[in-house]
Amino acid sequence: MANFPIYTLESAPEASKPALNGLAEAFGMVPNIAGAIAGSPKLINGLVGVFQQAHGGSFTEAQVQTLLLTNAVTNGCTWAVAFHSFLALKEGLSEADVQAIRARRLPDDRKLAALSHLARTLIDKRGRLDDEDIASFTAAGFDQALVLDVILVVAASTMTNYAGSVTNPPLEAAFQPYAWQA
Questions:
Q1: Interacting residues of 50 by C-beta distance below 8 A, sequence separation 6+
Q2: Tell me, what DSSP letter sits at residue 179?
Q3: For residues 94 and 76, what is the distance between their CA atoms, to the nearest angstrom?
Q4: Within its chain, how far is the Cα of 84 from the centroid?
């Protein structure tokens, strides 16, 4: 397997440093996955821009983490599952809902279940939703236009999930309790 370097704020390509600085400010550290992605200034900068839109959108942070954790599990990205399990719990998701998503089940919370189901369906069907998929989402109390915001979060996490699966960064000690295997 290829060995991708994990760049730091000091060792990253110059064009990647602003994005890494922003992530360090947001998380208090540069996550290893971002350090690996920093080898491509285009990807790390694109990723940070898309994630800023996803986190500043119509969903609460708990809802965003539901989507990101679902996407990581569906895409089989072990690093991202651990990271988003940690963040989902930090944002107030119940342990039971986090475990359900990690086990490819729906959370008990009705709205989180609708988000998780729609995200998984988008990935599984490669974006080809039907009327029933959208009706199921809106029946949980979401506006139809928010389907498009779910697509934004799926797109953002797809970049991270694919890059994480390719670069296979080591899992930080803080996320070890949330380690997961596909």
A1: 152, 155, 156, 159
A2: -
A3: 22
A4: 7
User: What is the chain's percent helix, strand, coil content, to nearest 5?
Assistant: 70, 0, 30
Measured between alpha carbons, how far is 79 from 81 in angstroms, rounded to an integer? 6
Strands (E), the chain: none
DSSP reduced 3-state for 3? coil
- Average pLDDT for the chain: 94
The mean pLDDT of 121-137, rounded to a whole number, is 95
pTM of the model: 0.93
The answer, yes or no, to whether residue 173 has pLDDT greater than 60, is: yes
| Rama region for 179: left / alpha / beta (φ>0; ψ in -120 to 50; rest) | beta
Tell me how long the chain is: 182
Tell me the residue type at 64: V
d(CA 64, CA 145): 16
Among candidates 182, 5, 176, which has minimal Cα distance to 83?
A: 176
**pLDDT band, residue 54 (cuts 50/70/90):** confident
pLDDT of residue 1: 56
Residue 69 has pLDDT above 60, yes or no: yes
Domains of the chain with CATH codes: 7-56 (no CATH), 61-158 (1.20.1290.10)
Q: Exposed e or buried b for every residue in 27-57, given b needs 16+ CB within 10 A? A: eeebbbbbbbbbbebebbbebbebbeebeeb
Q: At 149, list the tokens.
A: 């915001």
